[in-house]
Amino acid sequence: MLNGTDGTRLAVVTGGSGGIGKACGRELAGRGYDVVLTARREPALRAAADEVGARYFLADASSPSSFGAAIAALDRVDLMVHAAGTLDGTYARKQTFQQWRNTMSANLDSCFVVVQAALPLMSAGSRFVFVSSSAAHEPMPGRTAYSASKAGMNAFARALALEVDRDGINVNIVTPGPVETDMLQDVPFEMHAVTAEDVAQTVAWLDTVQASVDLPEIRLNAITRGPAAREPVVPLEARRRARREETERL
Ligand SMILES: NC(=O)c1ccc[n+]([C@@H]2O[C@H](COP(=O)([O-])OP(=O)(O)OC[C@H]3O[C@@H](n4cnc5c(N)ncnc54)[C@H](OP(=O)(O)O)[C@@H]3O)[C@@H](O)[C@H]2O)c1
């Protein structure tokens, strides 16, 4: 494990103001990491950083100039958690090219941008963790760009793993099904979901795995029945639709 001179590992978390990114920041800070959160919008990012005890920098993870300039302020990166992303887009027949581009850019271009900016600061013992989605394996109708971007992320991460193993750098993918965060609130039906803390604990645990072990991917899904199952999440959009249907019935 690579550490700073005082033994502290430096973790950068993209999407640091989001549900999963902030939970990762909190978990890692709690484990003694020096944490840097990144996102584009300052108020939410500053609040998240204050809340978890992290530093932050503003950067668009899909822009080489924006992200490159921001990360240049660091002297090393020991753990890069890429959790920035968007659940935008719709059915192929309804989608504009711009919607497609926005989703691909935020979710897939960003993989390349983040890696290319971070690699010069990473050495043996460092690690990338990509936060993907079950849509990478089970594409979602109505989420064509999102599904393609996450399948692309997984392929990119595996190719990267085969490129940087010779440098002693590890690459892991965490692939959750639904996670209870703001991103889920636009989904029009209720579902079982894991929590952002479940994902964060997995990310932090991955960084304890021996560098000699190749662990390509961990998939996380909520248990849907039996005593361990949590209550299903009812997203805001599902509540809105139920209210509309009720009004139409009256
Ligand atoms: N929630 C789920 O059900 C779920 C399930 C599976 C996988 N995931 C994946 O987990 C990741 C995090 O999701 P979440 O639920 O935490 O989402 P979230 O709460 O909506 O947060 C998204 C984060 O990404 C940042 N972001 C978006 N585009 C960005 C860009 N171009 N550059 C930099 N930052 C950007 C946002 O901040 P700014 O907008 O300020 O930049 C925010 O911090 C995503 O990749 C998502 O696909 C989520």
UniProtKB/TrEMBL annotation:
PROSITE patterns, per the entry: ADH_SHORT
Keyword Oxidoreductase (UniProt): yes
Pfam families (alphabetical): adh_short
Keywords: Oxidoreductase
Stretches assigned to the Ketoreductase domain: 9-182
Molecular function as annotated in GO: oxidoreductase activity
Source organism, top-level taxon: Bacteria
PANTHER family: DIHYDROANTICAPSIN 7-DEHYDROGENASE
Family according to the record: Belongs to the short-chain dehydrogenases/reductases (SDR) family.
Name of the protein in question: Oxidoreductase
Source organism of the structure: Mycolicibacterium duvalii
